[in-house]
Structures are given as C-alpha cells and as structure tokens.
TrEMBL record:
The chain crosses the membrane at residues 34-55, 76-98, 508-529. This is Transmembrane protein. It comes from Crucibulum laeve. It comes from the Eukaryota. Keywords: Membrane, Transmembrane, Transmembrane helix.
Amino acid sequence: MHSDKHFLISTISVQENAVKNILFQASTMLLRLAVFKIFSFLAFKMNAYTSFLMFTEDTIQKLFFLTARPPLRHSLLVLAFAVAFASSGLYDTLLWALDSPGYITKSTTVDVSASLLSSQLLADPLYNVFISNPEKNLDLVDIDQAISGGLFKSGFNFSLPGVVAASSKGIAPATQPFNLTGPRIWLDNEGLSVSVNGSGMSFCPPVTVDANSQAWRCAINNTNAYDMLVAAIGQPRIFWNADRSDILLPNRKDNPWASLGTGGDTAAMKQVFTVTKGNRRHTFLETVLKVSMLAFHPAMLDAAEVTDLIRRTWAPDPTKPIDATTQLLVDHVLEAQANGTSFTNGAIMKQDNYSIYTATIGLFNPLQPGSDLPEYAILQTTGISLTLLRSETLVNHVVPAEPCPYYYTNFATGGKVRSTNCYKSTGNQTGARFLGQIDASSMVILSDILGDGSTSMSATAVNQTGLDWYLNHTAHIDGLLVSRAFILGGDPTGVEIELKTNEAALSYLQVILIVIPLFFTVASLVLMMRDKAGLYRSSFMCAVSAATKMHGISSKNVGYMRPPPLITPVLEGGHIKLLTPGGGMLGNVGVHMVMPYDEPVTEPFLDKT
C-alpha cells in the first residue's frame, strides 16, 4: 500500500511549473499526432480517402460530411476521429489533474542573519507559546509548528530544527557563604547570581545538607498553605548584589502561567530568559513540571492514590516498588491529611556550576481569608530545573527605559522592554541606580497533556502516556524554544533555520503517461511506413502536387515537399484560378478531356474495394 501511494505522489523534481507545462503540452501534441496517424491508417485500410481528408477539416465541414450520408463505416470513422482527437486535446488537463500535490518541498539549512531578521521577522512576535491537547490525542500535538509559528511574516516558509551552536558560559566564584545563600549560579564578582524562588522555603527555612544542597520538611498552618498555592511555581530570582534582587513573575496580561502555575493544575512550563548587567548578558533555560491531585472536603485523598502519585513523580525509579525514603514521604502526607493540616517537603541542589534543580512535595489544606475551614485538599509535586546556556559581552551597555530616582530594573518580553519596576522599589535607596534588565525571551506552556489536576485519581492527575510523551520530547522542545528565544531576545548567531522551497514535481504515474504518447506515435508512424500508405501519409496539398507533377514532385513519392510549391489564387472572369509555379494552373480534368501528362497518376490503393 505504501509503494502504491508513492507511485502516485509527486516525487520527481522538474524545478518549475513551466517545465511541467512543456512536458504536458508535448505529450498532448504527440498523442494527437498518434491519434491522427492511427485513424489515417484505418482510413487507408478502408480505402476511405474522403474520410481521411475530413480529418483536417473543421467541425462544420465534418457535420456536412456526416449529413451527406456517406457509407456508414466512413461516417463512423470520421465521428470516432472527431471524438478521439478532441479528447486527446484534454490529455494535458488529465496530467495536471493527477498532481499529488504537484510539488515537493526542499529544505536548506542556514544560519539566522541580521538581514533575514530585518526583512522577515514580525514586528512584535509573541514571546509565549501555549500548547494544549483538548482532544486527548497526542498525535494531534505538533510542537514544531507551535513553537516555530508566529515568528516570521506570512509566506516565509521555514522550520526550526532546534539546533543552536555551542556557546561559552561565564561564571564567577560565590561571594557569600553557601549556608546563607543556598544553591545559586554565580555570574560576577559583585554578587550577580540567579536561583529559584521556592515558595516553600519562605515558610519552612531550608537546612544545608552538604556543600551543594539544602532541604526542608515542615508542617505549616493552613493560612500559609493558601499563600503558597496562589504563588506561581517556578519564579527565578535574580540577585544583583548582596542587597538587591528581583523576581521574574509571569505577567497576568499575556502569560497563562500566571494562573496555570498556581493552584491545583497539572501543567509544564519552559522559559528562556536573559539577565543583562552592564554589557554582560546571560541566558538561562528554566523547566517547571507541576502535578496536582485534589479532593473536596469532607472527602479525603485515598492512601493508595497518594502512594501511586508520589511513587510516579518522586521516586528515583518509578518502575520499581516504592523505596523506604519515598514511603516516608507518603506517611508524612497521610499524617497531615489525617490531622487536617498542611505539609511541605523539598530539596534544592546545585548539580554543577551551571545548573540548579529543586523538587517539592506538599499537601495543602488552604484556608482562604475569611474562612473558618478549608474547602479542599491539594497534593502537589513539582520539579524545577535552571540552567545557564550562554554568557556574552555586548557592544553597548544596557540602557534604562526611563529615568528613575530609585533602584530599578527593565523588564522585557521577546527582546523588547515593556516596563520597569521604578516605583515598586522598596528599602534603602542610598546610591540608587539602574541595575539591569530581565527579559523573558520566550516560553512554552503545556496543558491538557500531562494530566488533570482537578481529580482525586492518580492515573488521571498525571497521565502516564502524557508524561512519557513529555519526557521523550523535552529535549526537542528545549532546542526549539532556545532557537526561538535567541531569535527574539538574544544574539541569533549560531541558530539554524530550515528554509523550505517548493519545486514543481511529477509522480511516476505522470512520467509514464507522458511517455506513452511517444510510443503510440512511433508505432503509428511505423505502421504507415510499413504498409506504404501513400497519400494517407501526407496532406491533400501534397497529394495534389504529386498527382499533377507540380514542381517536379513525383506521384510515386508522395511525402513532405522540400520546398513546397507556391500556389497563387487569382480572379479571372469572375472565376478563381489556382496558378502553379511555371505558369501552370490547377483544374479539374473531365472524363472526355485530354490529360496533358505523359504519365498517369497511379497509386496501388486506388484499385482496392
């Protein structure tokens, strides 16, 4: 079946549609010639010379011939020729109709250039991409189209292969003790550093475990649980120095993570952001995975469902039975649920000098302001990774978007500054100055793929098929997102795109149909030459010229005239005469008139009945 489809699909490039048109027209001309020669051969076999002459007449003359009641077989011959010849003229239309699709798409990989961006990039591309799966069919999710869409102008055919050249990364020694700062990615000697702002750590101070990690485990009151749930998960914190820091918050105006990142949803988010101080710009990739399970009071989460969810999202190997450490977490969650309290547990670790990872698990019975009792309980697990991708030195220093008497920062999305936090600045303003710029260059949010966080069933809260799909595609998503981010908010040098061009193409079926008329034409010509069809191989003019020995043409050698004689019509005495070269004249010789020729016209077919 696959080979049959390949036979019908356009796969053979011919570059341009003009070439296709020439091939189709040439094939049509050959087919019409073959039809003419085949019917001429039939007329020869039937000794139907008048029918043969009708082949070259127009439709009206053919109708007059048919209404004159010639022999039936002669009429049928002319009628069949008229139908076949007219139909053969539509052969090129048939060939065009077989286009499937009529072109092939070729890709050329090129590096993104400044000229390409200036001519083809949209004026204000979206920095965020939202991928949803409401049909619950992962085959319908096209991550390439989603992440590469909305970048360039309509008609610019391209794709992002997700390939970015390796870049240098600039780090610096820590300027403060690890037990005071926790894991950070240090960027300069003045304390510029980046980490993840974990909401759990605000209510449960972490304890240093070793030189690279900290952990926490606390029972928390339900009022604090509400405050933790309304904060979006995965907020990078940028420390400009030992005293000043900013948090990269999702903008509620245009960023769905402002809502999906809070509460009990199951979703994933990836974002590429840059931190620029002076003329040094650092690019980071953050990945957030949030899984939730919910039960409305007085119902409680089933112990088996809690165990299954924690095993699949927290255990070192989810395919194996639950280990003792993970089982201890399950016990803490179930104990908090039985007590009607909230619980948080987590760890943050520095995997190397360029990356940080944090994981949390918590049971929350949020008590909203003004309420006496919690309305629901949420079990939530999260995983957040933060990685330094690139460090670069810019030609110019970053410029503040506006003057301000306080410590302040530019906030940008998609490479364009949207606002500052000038009048939100708090604390001591001694030495106030512009600190730098934070740019959420590009981000992607995945919803309805990993599961439904509004259920109390573990299998639904985190769909294993969706989770496996996400884990299998996460590296490709990273590559696409980084490419998009560098095009929008960074230096596109080293980012590859595939330019796609359409070339006219033929299918194997079309090629065969183009060649077939050539074989018919050759076969018909061979038939005519083999059987010495005489006058049926040439036009009426050739026949007349040969029969009258005009211009030295022999009646025994009817064929093409080289050069053809010049026949001139003249009007004499009210009659039109056809003058031939040498002063002769064409005329009709009657039965009792003397023929001025010394050699009669003889053709072997004249005696046929």
